[in-house]
C-alpha cells in the first residue's frame, strides 16, 4: 500500500440509515463531556468556600497574633499557607481539567492575566501537579505536627510520616513513568 493511500477507502460504505444512527450516538457521546462542567462548577464553589474560611481564619489569626507564642504563630501561618496551596490546587484542577476534558476557555485567550501554564498542562502534567501539591500539603501538616511534638501522639505522627513518604514515592514514580513515556514517544 502506498503511504498516501487511505486503508479505509476500500471498505464497503454503510447504508445512510446506519450512518445517521452512528452520527447521533457519536454526537451524544461527544456532548456528554459537558456533564463534567457540573463538577468543575462544584469545585469553583469549593474555592469560594475555601476563600471564606481563609478570610475567617486570617481574621482570627490577626487578632491573636500579637499575643501568641512563636510556635502558635508559626502553626497559624502554616495553616494559612496550607489553605493557599489547596486553593492553588483547586484552580489548577479546574482550569486544566476543564480545558483537557470539556472545552478550551476562550474568554481567557486574549486576556493579559491568563496564566502562562493555562492550556499547556496535559493529563499527565495534571497528575504530577496533583501529587506534587499533595506532597506539599502533607509536608506542611507534618511540619505543623513536629512544631507541636510535645503534644503529639507518637503513633499518629508515625502514620503522618508514613503517609508523607507514600506521597513522595508515588510522586517520584509518577514523574519517572512520565519521563520514560515521553522518552519512548520522542524516540519514535
Q: If you had to describe this structure to a student in words, what would you say it looks like?
A:
The protein is mainly α and 188 residues long. The protein has one domain. Helix content is 72%, strand content 0%. It contains five helices and no strands. The chain has helices at 16-31, 36-64, 70-101, 123-147, 154-187. α2 (36-64) packs antiparallel against α3, α3 (70-101) runs antiparallel to α4 and α4 (123-147) runs antiparallel to α5. The radius of gyration is 24 Å and the shape is elongated. The chain starts with 15 loop residues before the first helix and ends with a helix. The model has no long low-confidence stretch (mean pLDDT 84).
What does the secondary structure layout of this molecule look like, with pairings?
Blueprint: H1 16-31, H2 36-64, H3 70-101, H4 123-147, H5 154-187
Helix pairs in contact: 2-3, 3-4, 4-5
Domains, number: 1
Portion in helices: over 70%
What is the global morphology? elongated
Structure class: mainly alpha
State the distance separating the first and last CA atoms. 21 Å
Share of β-strand residues:
under 5%
Tally of helical runs: 5
Major β-sheet, in short?
none
| Spans where pLDDT lies below 50 across 5 or more residues | none
Beta strand count: 0
Question: What is Rg?
Answer: 24 Å
Order of helices and strands: HHHHH
On the 0-100 scale, what is the average pLDDT? 84
